[in-house]
């Protein structure tokens, strides 16, 4: 959830969509993202739209009580039902993210899911994920979530090393995320993800290997590994600027990525997106696949973004303003844009090129096609899919994914 909202045209008060957005909707999957904007403490690297209790008190505006948050989201789900009208699609994926969703009682997460079930219905085998901080759950909580219908859980592990967790301001102890995987399995969760971060200042190659081994050894079926991004305006960025801690460089990130690919592959994981590995196709995150393939999703919650049929919109960022809009019967949408075909083409390249399935060469404009031929000659694209009309990154191409994508969208 980026911290700044884009400009755009105003959103109508009732949130109504242009008629064309729903044309052909029956053929597209529909997912829901539910944002929970609360954290017990703020990690120094994080610029997600999330608030600690003291940040909420200090930010003025309308109250934004955690106690009533689930009911507010239920209001937005009801609004979604009205806006999507007689769209008959059941929900294929639900992803509750944050912030820290598991700061809310499990019953609240259950109520939000029940509202989706009541208003839209859940497709058979729907994937229902929640993110969770390792120190915010216990076996009873996980059992309640499972009983409420959640079948996938994603824990923010980040690292197995105490000194790395400390730089990241993480509050859990090493070993706790691995225990969470076991507790989630015991509670009956079929799919479990661990998020890892590499390239934290002070982290060594051996620290990173230890984190990967601890993560794979815990038995999740999915691992996301992200290079640490030093976001402007975060405490981490300020500490680096003051020279208190060093910055890591791109070469270190590249080395760590190669270590990740090596260790994860050896442990039975296969990449399917540049930052994501799974033990089987069934273990991939279907909700993220829905984002990456331009399907429809409704994002509920402050600052959440939505996309339906080429119309993208975003909600007001502050939980207070968000709750107030819904209490007054207004859409919490702050703005929207109808994506021109050219933007949709570029976006498809940006997202699909990062997938193991790659993107069709037919999407590329002439300059992009010439860049693809050069990338093939430079060993950044796989020759066999290329011959069959697809641009698929090689391992070296994945290290340079951002640069390759930039060239191909020309
Ligand atoms: C919303 S957070 C996860 C949920 C939960 N609050 C937690 O932190 O465990 C999603 C994931 O994004 C990743 N992330 C957040 N900020 C990042 C940054 N600046 N650089 C790299 N990864 C980041 C972390 O791996 C984190 O687990
Ligand atoms: S717990 Fe997660 S969402 Fe909250 S501040 Fe830390 S990384 Fe960000």
Content of β-strand: 15-25%
Q: Would you report the number of β strands?
A: 14
**Class of secondary structure makeup:** alpha/beta
Rounded Rg: 21 Å
Task: Tell me the series of helices and strands, N- to C-terminal.
Answer: EHHEHEHEHHEHEHHEEHEEEHEHEHHEHH
Summary of the model, kept short:
The chain contains 16 helices and 14 strands. By secondary structure, it is of the alpha/beta class.
Any key phrases for this structure?
alpha/beta; 16 helices; 19% strand; globular; binds S-adenosylmethionine; binds iron/sulfur cluster
Task: Give the topology, please.
Layout: E1 30-36, H1 53-58, H2 69-84, E2 91-98, H3 106-119, E3 122-132, H4 139-148, E4 152-158, H5 162-167, H6 176-186, E5 191-198, H7 205-217, E6 222-227, H8 235-241, H9 250-266, E7 270-273, E8 276-278, H10 286-292, E9 296-300, E10 305-308, E11 311-315, H11 319-327, E12 333-338, H12 341-352, E13 359-360, H13 366-377, H14 383-387, E14 390-391, H15 395-399, H16 401-408
Parallel strand pairs: 1-2, 1-9, 2-3, 3-4, 4-5, 5-6
Antiparallel strand pairs: 6-8, 7-8, 10-11, 11-12, 13-14
Helix pairs in contact: 2-3, 3-4, 7-9
């Amino acid at each position: 959830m980026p911290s700044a909202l884009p400009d755009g045209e105003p959103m109508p008060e009732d949130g109504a969509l242009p008629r064309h957005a729903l044309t052909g909707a029956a053929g597209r999957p529909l997912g829901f993202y539910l944002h929970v904007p609360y954290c017990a403490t703020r990690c120094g690297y994080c610029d997600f739209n999330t608030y600690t209790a003291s940040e909420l008190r200090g930010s003025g505006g309308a109250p934004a009580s955690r106690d009533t948050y689930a009911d507010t989201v239920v209001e937005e789900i009801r609004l979604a039902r009205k806006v999507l009208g007689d769209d008959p699609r059941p929900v294929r994926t639900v992803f509750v993210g944050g912030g820290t969703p598991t700061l809310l009682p499990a019953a609240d997460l259950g109520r939000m899911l029940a509202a989706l079930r009541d208003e839209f219905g859940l497709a058979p085998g729907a994937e229902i994920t929640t993110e969770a901080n390792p120190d915010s759950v216990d076996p009873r909580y996980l059992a309640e979530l499972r009983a409420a219908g959640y079948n996938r859980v994603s824990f923010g592990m980040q690292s197995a090393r105490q000194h790395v967790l400390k730089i990241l301001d993480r509050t859990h102890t090493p070993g706790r995320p691995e225990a969470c995987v076991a507790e989630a399995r015991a509670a009956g969760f079929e799919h479990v993800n661990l998020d890892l971060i590499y390239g934290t200042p002070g982290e060594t190659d051996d620290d990173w290997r230890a984190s990967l081994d601890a993560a794979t050894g815990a038995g999740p079926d999915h691992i996301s590994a992200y290079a640490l991004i030093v976001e402007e305006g975060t405490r981490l960025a300020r500490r680096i600027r003051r020279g208190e801690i060093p910055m890591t460089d791109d070469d270190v990130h590249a080395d760590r990525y190669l270590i990740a690919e090596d260790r994860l592959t050896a442990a039975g994981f296969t990449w399917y997106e540049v930052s994501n590995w799974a033990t089987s196709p069934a273990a991939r995150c279907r909700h993220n696949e829905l984002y990456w393939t331009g399907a429809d999703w409704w994002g509920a919650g402050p600052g959440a973004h939505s996309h339906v049929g080429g119309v993208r919109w975003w909600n007001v960022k502050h939980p207070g303003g968000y709750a107030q809009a819904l209490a007054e019967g207004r859409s919490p949408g702050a703005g929207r844009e109808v994506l021109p075909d050219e933007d949709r083409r570029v976006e498809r390249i940006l997202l699909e090129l990062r997938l193991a399935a790659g993107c069709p060469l037919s999407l590329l404009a002439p300059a992009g096609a010439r860049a693809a031929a050069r990338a093939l000659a430079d060993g950044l694209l796989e020759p066999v899919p290329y011959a069959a009309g697809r641009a698929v990154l090689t391992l070296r191409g994945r290290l340079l994914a951002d640069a390759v994508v930039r060239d191909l969208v020309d």
